[in-house]
Amino acid sequence: MLHFIGALWFCWVAALAPAQTTGQIMATGNGPPTLETLAPGQVTTLFVVGLKVPNATASGIPLPTTLSGLTVHVSGPVQAKGYPERLPLFSVRTYDGCFGLGPCPLTFVTVQIPTEPTCVPTTGWPNECTMGSLPIVGLTVEHSGGRGPTTSIVVSGSKPHFLNSCDTVFGSYGGFCQQFVTHPSGQPVTGSNPARAGETIVMYAIGLGPTQLAVKSGEAATEDAPVQIPPPLLLSYKAAPPPSPPAPPGAIWIPTGWIIPIYAGLVKGAVGLYQINVKLPDEFPPEATICQPSNSSLDGNFRLSIGMGYFGETARADHIAFCMSP
After folding, report:
1. Do residues 150 and 171 both lie within one domain?
2. How far is CA 188 from CA 131, 178, 297, 318, in A?
3. Nearest to residue 202, comparing CAs of 212, 192, 188?
4. Do both 191 and 299 map to the same domain?
């Protein structure tokens, strides 16, 4: 699970617009591609049009800034002192078979957004930052001496996302998606091995933003590096259906309240990967459904939501489901 760093990348391409320019970044993301706000240190995929690049994967840490002759340059208006001029690369993969759903070939470039603080220089004061300005970063793909157009993205706050097996960091999209929730021992939380009330569970995520211990772009944390602002998580449970029809359509999710993680920070030895440890409530709601041994990781009776605007953003909430027993 922690070896996602050098994984292959594959994604659904139906949402991509027709190709415009060779080397153009059409989208970013962890699943269906979109252009989105990203967090400092975010691991994401750049979906690049028109290149045919030999497949390559970073062989070590620190991550390289060039793979198969491909480089992603970073440009202003962010010009903070020490801000990287190139993105660290996990891997590059080119796919010719686009199933008639999008421009071909497509090159999927696995990158890390810089961890260093962004800065919009104050006019006339190049060493000072303008507070409150949107930190916009320009990304440009270069290959074999040729550069595509620059694509602008906003790097701000956080873009939290719970990892699951369908993320592009694992090289696939679609099919049966396994969510990663484990016991403290590392054993998966499943329908046949559920979490217990009062237990501490472990999840993995990307995009939680800056950490208290500064870690350079492309490098791994060598010790615990908690996030600067622990992300509150909303715990909800699936209520049992009413004893008599008509039952309302879909599941009934009842929120129980907010939980602050025991630990939320980078995983030692990995680049851009966060671990979240959460202690579950000691009481099991009597109205909650009970998981069966056959329940999949997507069909749990509890779920945690993250990314509900706790940095003043309007990012959609990301959910992770799991099975919990009394």
Report:
1. no
2. 44, 10, 9, 20
3. 188
4. yes
pLDDT digits 0-9 by tens, 178-222: 788 999 999 999 999 999 999 999 999 999 999 999 899 999 999
By the 8 A CB rule, do 167 and 12 touch? no
54 and 182 share a domain? no
Token duo for residue 271: 């680049």
**194 and 286, same domain (yes or no):** yes
How far is CA 58 from each of CA 2, 50, 188, 219, 297, rounded to the nearest angstrom?
15, 22, 28, 12, 31
Distance CA 29, CA 184 (A): 29
The single residue listed with the structure tokens 């602002």 is 229
C-alpha span between 96 and 52 (Å, rounded): 8
Per-residue confidence (pLDDT) for residue 58, from 0 to 100: 93
Specify the number of domains making up the chain.
2
pTM score of the predicted model: 0.82
DSSP code at position 177? P
Closest CA to 190 of 326, 325, 306, 3: 325
* Pairing state between β 151-154 and 136-143: antiparallel
Of 126, 154, 182, the domain-final residue: 154
Q: Which amino acid is at 35?
A: L
> Which residues of the chain are modeled with pLDDT < 70?
1-22, 26-27, 29-35, 77-81, 97-103, 119-134, 168-176, 241-251, 297, 308-317
Q: In 3D, which of 136, 117, 108 has the Cα closest to residue 31?
A: 108
Last residue of a domain, one of 154, 185, 209: 154
**Are 120 and 183 in a shared domain?**
no
CB neighbours of 314 closer than 8 A, spacing ≥ 6?
Answer: none
| Beta-carbon contacts of residue 249 (< 8 Å; ≥ 6 apart) | none
